[in-house]
Amino acid sequence: MSTMIHDDNGGMPTDTSDEDRYIVPGLIRGLTILEGFSADNPEQSLAGIARDTGLPRATVFRLLHTLEAAGYLQRNAARRTFRLGNRVLRLGYNALSDRNLAEIATPVLERLRDQTGCTTHLVVREGIDVVYVVRCQGATPENSLIGVGTRLPAHATVIGRTLLAHMPMADVVRLYDGYHFPTYTDATPTDLGTLVAQLEADRPQRSLASWGYFEPNVASIAAPVRNRAGIAEAAVNAICSLDAYDRAVLEDVVRVQVEAAAAEISAALGYQA
Prior knowledge:
- This protein is of the alpha+beta class.
- The chain has two domains: 20-84, Winged helix-like DNA-binding domain superfamily/Winged helix DNA-binding domain (Arc Repressor Mutant, subunit A, Orthogonal Bundle); 94-269, GAF domain (Beta-Lactamase, 2-Layer Sandwich), CATH 3.30.450.40.
- It is built from eight helices and eleven strands.
- The protein has a six-stranded antiparallel sheet, with helices on both faces. The protein has a three-stranded antiparallel sheet with strand order 3-5-4.
């Protein structure tokens, strides 16, 4: 037996069975609107969306307002049109690239490990943490407790700062609003203002160097990995004990190798510098 779902505003009916009574019609309508955007139709007006979907203008207005507030649409006030926002683009690119990210990165990080003798990692950000998804153990132990699956606070690690620095700063402020900043070394940012100032200084850098920033006996070089949309969706690093390299060599020679590895992974994900 089939039923037709209507919203209270006379919206577009949806053909569904009794087994699908838990479907949320409003969500389906919002996704239908998003699916209407394409390379051939990148901007649409409220009137055009209402015409194409058959939804009442009042319903479309509320859906567009909600999608814009959530970051899935961007409004062009001058033309009175909407286009896909960065959030929906990021969702799509992450879905495509995350399946292969570790597979793509692993041989690059193994080669970086062999070149430098350092332990190398790939991380992604989840909220206020970074999560380690690839680890290639180096030739010399660095007395680090990090392993695959380890979560560390992004604000307190150079590899985490690498990702935060390439986020819109307004998103960083929202993410850390009201956050209690735990400290790990004297270099750890202790409040939002200090973190924002640090990230503003980090943003122009191709890579960041750490000399005992999170773990007092560990040095690190980190660089962002970008996807096809140019979003820094991951980061790589090379770490070693403080006595493994002269600091100048680490920051001049190893830095270039880490940046090259990040660039190679980014290119494999479709990023064009």
